[in-house]
Amino acid sequence: MPQGQIRKALSGFYYVYDDGKIIQCRARGVFRNRGESPLVGDFVDYTVEGANDGTITVIHERKNNLVRPPIANIDQAILVFSIKEPDFNTILLDRFLVVLESFYIEPIICLTKSDLMDEQMEKTMDAYIKDYEQIGYPILVTFKDDPAIDEKIAPLLKEKTTVLAGQSGVGKSTLLNTILPSLDLKTGVISNALGRGKHTTRHVELIEVCGGLLADTPGFSSFEFDLMEKEELSKCFPEFVEKQDACKFRECMHVKEPKCAVKDAVETGDIKEYRYKHYLQFLDEIVERKPRY
């Protein structure tokens, strides 16, 4: 049975890529009966009906999948954050990082608008960059009309499925516009990829870019901790994971417990205090979350 990957979903149709061809498919009713739904990024088996039509019969096991936006099998996310206008926001960045960690998606932090920094801000940002790099997160710093942006981004996209995420106004569209013209794509394709234009439907689509697949996804500007249990949260802070085996209690939540290695590391500065404060804030959110039925 032929196999392929869903590259686009629109109006009940799934566009499956298989060896250079796109097959327009419907999904079998059995998925609906089971409460399942194929997602962009899914690897699937399908049957052929006619030249370019088919039916999806099997959805292969997923590496991961997000609910909002609905997309599966993501390798990495480029988190686009501006340094100014809007100002760099560590709590929002940490929210993104925690949720990506929980889905085993590798984050790459891309800081835009570095040309708007004054001297004081440069010092502050240098300290933040050092903090996040120390944790192990790769960081790119770009500025308006950066001629080297292609050289910085292109190698990261090769053989990966990547999503772009970030608040509106941080330069996400500009970044995508810069990456896509390197393929000599027509303006219309770029407009569709960005979901611009009066009649363009916002949908999730994987586009071939720089030897990989890139999704600019609608509604991918904030994250909730809907699916996370409080015990999972500390595992999404890599610097906590490094220390927590030395905690006195195996199930230490790093809040009020005695002999907590994470709290000790906050005291010594090995773990940054603002990261620990964000952890406590996120923990409160999860604990106070209303049960879902």
From TrEMBL:
It is found in: Cytoplasm. The keyword RNA-binding applies. Its EC number is 3.6.1.-. Pfam families: RsgA_GTPase, RsgA_N. Keywords: Cytoplasm, GTP-binding, Hydrolase, Metal-binding, Nucleotide-binding, Ribosome biogenesis, RNA-binding, rRNA-binding, Zinc. Gene3D superfamilies: Nucleic acid-binding proteins, P-loop containing nucleotide triphosphate hydrolases, Probable gtpase engc, domain 3. Residues 72-221 form the EngC GTPase domain. Monomer. Associates with 30S ribosomal subunit, binds 16S rRNA. This is Small ribosomal subunit biogenesis GTPase RsgA. It comes from Psychrobacillus soli. The gene is rsgA.
